[in-house]
């Protein structure tokens, strides 16, 4: 499939690494492709909420090399989805993700390949976080290592009662490399981030909510009689933020993103530009015509 120049330009501007940093995406893709197994599945729904599933149940949804490539391709598809409003990232078979596939990690444990894999995943997860969609990580079971990092590449995190997020990197003689440490500091502050990484702390829903990592706790549908399936609960939770026309929801995400990532003057100018895309647009004119009251 050929990629349009506009799409390529948008992808590049969302990436952290490019050829200027000595990063060659095709080269690392070829290496990663050798470690296959599992998939990343994308379901775009008419509601404007997509579901991205980390699917490698026989390895507790660990990321094989080919799944890393899949992830990058799915993010590209979501970048090019004008009707999109929200995204739920979940794991298959009742667990979230056990990080990178340790078989692949062992095979590419040399310094150079490790750096390339790290840059590839930072690019993919940064683009995931920068999607103009409001995103939620739905954590069921365990989110370990790179799986914990993946949760921080979403706008929100919902945990099922009994689930765990754990940055186990220290136990592996590592630190996060997929951007998880930088994002964690933004989410919970440097004191809490130091505790979570330095202690490889098991974060349960209660601790997660207390430190601001977790935005909601869902009832375990298998343990609580009458509870809705988890994905349904997550969709209901997300829908309060995705009600309305896609251009408006996407603009909401973009102004928050620019405020989060850019220096103030630049964020203000970006906000003005984004404001310009919704001012006088159909949803704005419709709201003005309806003389709505906000009681
Ligand atoms: C970016 C840096 C990183 O992400 S480094 C990787 C960090 N992750 C890890 O170290 C996770 C290691 N795995 C575990 O701790 C356990 O397998 C967990 C996930 C707790 C599950 O335990 P338990 O319920 O007893 O199942 P199990 O150990 O029998 O696992 C089932 C099969 O899945 C596999 N598995 C699990 N995690 C990985 C992984 N990260 N990479 C490759 N394979 C993994 C296990 O080896 C096991 O496979 P098998 O059935 O023995 O063939």
TrEMBL record:
GO molecular function: methyl/ethyl malonyl-CoA decarboxylase activity
Keyword RNA-binding carried by entry: no
GO biological process, one term: fatty acid beta-oxidation
Catalytic activity: (S)-methylmalonyl-CoA + H(+) = propanoyl-CoA + CO2; (2S)-ethylmalonyl-CoA + H(+) = butanoyl-CoA + CO2; (2R)-ethylmalonyl-CoA + H(+) = butanoyl-CoA + CO2
UniProt-annotated location(s): Cytoplasm, Cytosol
Function recorded in the entry: Decarboxylates ethylmalonyl-CoA, a potentially toxic metabolite, to form butyryl-CoA, suggesting it might be involved in metabolite proofreading. Acts preferentially on (S)-ethylmalonyl-CoA but also has some activity on the (R)-isomer. Also has methylmalonyl-CoA decarboxylase activity at lower level.
Name of the protein: Ethylmalonyl-CoA decarboxylase
Organism: Astatotilapia calliptera (Eastern happy)
Species classification: Eukaryota, Metazoa, Chordata, Craniata, Vertebrata
